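Sanity check

After download, print the first record. It should look like this:
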Amino acid sequence: MKENILGTEKVQKLLIKFSLPAIISMLVNSLYNIVDQLFIGNGVGYLGNGATTIIFPITMVCSAIACMIGDGAASYLSLKLGENKKDEASNGVFSAFISSLFISILIFILVFCFLDKIIVVFGCTPDIRPYALSYGRLITVGLPFTIISTVLNSIIRADGSPKYSMISMISGAVINCILDPIFIFGLKLGVVGAALATVIAQVISFTINILYLRKFKSIDFGFKKCNYNFKKTLKIAMLGISSLITQLSIVAIMAVENNTLGALGAASKFGPNIPMIALGIVMKISQILNSIIIGLAAGSQPIIGFNYGAGKYDRVKSTFKYVLGFSVVISTLALVLFQTIPEVLISAFGKGDALYIEFACMAFRTYLLLTILNGVQIPSSIFFQAIGKSKKSAILSLSRQVLILIPAMIIFGKVFGINGVLYAGPFADLIAFIISIILLVFEFKHLNKNSEDVNTSVIKKKSKYKGKHVVITIGREYGSGGRFIGELVASGLNINFYDKNLIEELSYETGYSKEYIEKNEQSSIDEHSNGFTTNSDELFIKESELIRNIAKNESCVIVGRCANAVLKDNKDVVNVFIYNSDEGKVDRAVKYYGLNKKTALKEIKKINRQRAKHYKTYTDMNWNDFNNYDLCINSDVLGVIDSAKLIIDFVSKKDK
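Expected C-alpha cells:
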C-alpha cells in the first residue's frame, strides 16, 4: 500500500506545500476588503472610508449565506462522489446553484429597497450617510454576482480545481486594484468609482466561474441533465451552517462596535465619526497579518488531522509547534509595527485631522496591545478542528469574538467611555489566550500518553464457502440480537463476518488508528451535532469504498454501516433487517450488554434513534423502512438461532 505523504514527508516541506496556497487565498480576500479604503481615503477622505465601514457588514451577511451554500455543496459533492452516487452529486450541485441564484436576487431586492434603513442598524451617522448610500447602492448591484461566484468557488475547489478557483479570485482582486485609481482619481467618481470598480471585478470573477460550469470533471451539470431538489438544498445548507454562524458573528460584532463607538464618540472630543472610521481601518490592517496566520494554520489542518488519525502523535505535536512558532513570529512583527509606526500605517489610507490621527494611533496601541496572543489563539482553534474536537474549536472561535469582546465593549464603554471600547480588545485577547493555553495543556497531556505510533495487523479467516457469490447485509435494532445472528449466519455458511473487524480493515487501509475510527466513525449521529461532522463524512466515504471492495472480492456478512445502501446496485446482495419488541430489547440489553433495567429502554431508544439519523444522513432513506430490505425478521418470534437458520435457508433458496 502506498504511504500517504502526510504521514511520511518532512513537516516543514508539507507546511510550505499546503499553507502557501491557503495564505495566498486569505491575503486575496483581505485585499478585496481593504483596497477600496486605500484609494477612497486618499481620493475622498476619511468620511468616504466610513461608507465602506458601514456597507461592509452587508457584504459579510451575503458572504455568510454564500459560504453556507458553497461549503455545504462542496461537502455534499465530495460525499456523494465518495459514495459513487454521481447523479445525486450532480443534482445537489445544481440545486445549490439554482438556490444561490434565487437567493441572490431576493437579497438584491431587499437591500436595494431598504438600504437607507439597513445602514442605520450598522451605526451610520448623518455625516457618513450620503457617502454610504452612494457607495452602497452600487455595491448592492454586485451582490448577486459575488454570492454566486463565492458559491461556485467552493464547488470548483471540491471538483478538484483549486487553481482555477484561485485564478478567479486573484483576477477579481487585480481588476479592482487597477480600476480603483482610474475611477477615483482619473474620472473623479469618488466612492461611486470605488463601488463601480468593485462591481466590475465581481462580474469578472463571476464570469470566470460561470464558464467552469461546462468544465466539471466529476459530474454532469446542466439544466437538461439535473433536477432541482428542495430537500437536497436544505441538507446542503445544514452541511454549511457552521460557515454561516462564523461569518454572522463578525457582522454582530461590527454592528455592536459601530453603534457603541458612534454613541460614545459623540460624547467625547472625537465626535461620532472618527472612532468608528479609524477603528474600522485599524481592524482591517490587523486582519491582513491575521490572514497569514489563518492561512498557515489552515494549511496545517490536513497534516495534523491525518497524523492524529494515524496515531502519529509526535508528528502532530511537531507540526503544531512549527505553526505556533511561525504564528508568534508574525504576530510579534505585527505588534512591533502597531506600537512603533501607527502614524505611517494610518496615513496610507489618506489624510485626516489631528483628532483622527490621535484616535487611530490610540486604537493601534491600545486595542491591538496584545495582538501577539493571536499567534496562539487562532492556530489553537484550527488545531482542535483538525483533530475532530469541534466543540473545543467552536469555544475558541467564538470566545474572543462573541462571548468576550461584545460584552467587554459594552461594559467597559459604560465605565471608561470611548477608551473602554479600546480596552476591550486586549482584554478579549488575554482571556481567549488563557482559554487556549488551558485546552492545549490538557490536549498535549493526552497526546503524550498516546505518543506511540499505532501498528495494526488484520487477521482474516479463509472462507470455505462453495456456493454462488453472496453478500448478506444486516441492519438491526439495538437489543434485537442482530449482530449475533449475523455471526451465526457467517459461521453456518463458512464466510467471513464483518462488524468490529471492519474497523481493523479500515485502519489498515487508511492509516487511521482503531481508537480514532471508533471515536469518529459515527460522530455525526450525536444528537447535538446537527447531523454533520467532517471526520465522520470522510470515514463514511472510505468505509463505503472498503465495503464495496470486500463485497466484490468475497462472500461475507456485513453488519450495519448502511451496507445495504452502499451495495444497493449489487445484484448478489441479500439485505436483512432484525427487529423485536421493547421487552425483548430490554431483556437482551440487560442480560448481555450490562444495561441498567430501569434506564435500559431509554438508552435503547436513544441508540436506535441515532442509528436512524445516521442512516438518513448518508442514504436519504429511512432505516426501519422494510421496503429497503429483502427479509425482515422479528427475533422474538424465532429466537436468534432459528432466525439465523431462516436467513441461511433464504440465501440457499435464492442461490438455486
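If your output differs, re-run the checksum step. Summary of this record's structure: Residues 452-461, 524-534 have pLDDT under 50 and may be disordered.
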